[in-house]
Structure formats: C-alpha cells, structure tokens
Amino acid sequence: MVNAPPAKTLQQGLERPDVIDVIAFDEKTGEVVLVLREPRNWDGSDGRLFQLQEKINAYLSFALDGEMSDAYPAFVNKPVRLQLDCTTQPDARTVDFIGIVREQIAYQGIKFEITLNGQTLCACGSAPPSGEREE
Predict the structure, then answer these.
(1) Does residue 84 sit within a domain?
(2) How far is Cα 49 from Cα 17, in angstroms, rounded to an integer?
(3) Which of 43, 44, 109, 125 has the lowest tally of Cβ within 10 angstroms?
(4) From first to last of its 135 residues, what are the pLDDT tens digits of the chain?
(5) How many structural domains is the chain composed of?
(6) pTM here?
(7) Rg (the chain; Cα; Å)
C-alpha cells in the first residue's frame, strides 16, 4: 500500500473520531484504504462500541460527503475499504457490531476488514482458511 502524504501528525485511535488515522492506496486491489487504529485491548463496553461507531461514522462521512475527494483528487471514483487495525482480538460484541456495519456499508460499495497484528480477519473475527484474504 502507498500512504498518502499526511497533512499533520495527530494522536490516533478510536478515542479521536475527528482524526483519520491513515489514508492509503492499495495498489493490489485499487482501493482507497481508510485505517482505524485501536491499540487498546477490547473490552466490549458500551463506551468502546460508541467510540468505534463515532470513528466509523466520521470515516464514512469523509469518504461519502466529498471531503476525501477534495483532499485527494486522485482517489475520486476509487473503491473504499475501511480497515480496523487491532493489536488484540475484538470481543464477540464488537465483532457482532462490525458485522452489522459491514452489511450496511456494503450498500455503498464500501468494504470493511479487521486486521490483527497485520493479519486480515474475516467478519466472524477469526482468520480465514489457509490465510487467504477475504473478498
């Protein structure tokens, strides 16, 4: 993936819904990848799910309301993927929530994937068979 030049360095993570943690272009898939980072352990709390929801909403607004196109004209008409980078396995409640989000944003042609320490996980939160990427 090729990272787009950052405008400025800010604190990242679910605690900062006003910050796009990483925006990159995946040359293999042709997708613009908007990365959400969560370095903390998942706890299934209402507060953490709310932070995740707020961050996702901000990313979707960025992608769908024209802000991304204005800031990155090269990304106009490119497919978008949200990618949640985690350092620990999401809890069942979070995985269920992400499943609902994936279903809803698919109507906009947007994919959502979870990575755990760089390995892509499927919607159920477990590694796909034979290490293949989920499509």
Answers:
(1) yes
(2) 12
(3) 109
(4) 655 544 444 578 999 999 999 999 999 999 999 999 999 999 999 999 999 999 999 999 999 999 999 999 999 999 999 999 999 999 999 999 999 999 999 999 999 999 998 888 864 444 443 444 444
(5) 1
(6) 0.82
(7) 14
